[in-house]
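Hi P.,

Sorry for the delay on this. The queue was packed all week, but I finally got your sequence through. Input first:
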Amino acid sequence: RAAGAGAAAPGAAPARALARWGRGEPVRIRIWGPRGNGAAEAVEEALGRVQLEAIEAGRRVPTAVRGSLDELAERLEIAGGTGSFAAAVVARALDHDGVTIIDLGRDRRAATVVRVAGESDAASALVAVVQCDEPPAPRAGFVDLHLGAVAVADLAALAAQLLDRAVPRRWAESLHRAARGLPAVAAELCRLAAASADKGKKKRRRPRY
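Then the structure:
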């Protein structure tokens, strides 16, 4: 089934889905959207929420392994490149008693990953992060979450958090246009702005002889 992950708290929806793992249920999540949509940050936020809730409730705390398909294959010592290779990586990853996060980007093997994971009844959690502009075909067993452009107000809040001060509305609107509304792109622009401001301050403070 498909769902929106929400602009203000992008990690909330993945966290709700991951919470089912703590109850012993298989969890399969596919997060999709354009590059720069902040999926990596949303997954980290979701995992942190679930781990904190598990600690507070006295339940087992999920550990996580993360990487691209090839990075996971190297870690699991699986050789190959396509087709059954991808299936083998996913099958082995699902043996992990925790959360496996696969950064698929636009990997053509993403369909195999989703198919194999959806068919497995292993009581583990798998999060597939894919880059695409159109909704992927639904897959039984998977929760689909879309992360895309967010509103100006959401980016203003993000900028205020990163810069440690409120930003003017016009500045936030300019940031929104430059970043195309994408949180991860906006975050990088904010970091560049902060670094530029710090550099300017250091130049002004340089003593003259």
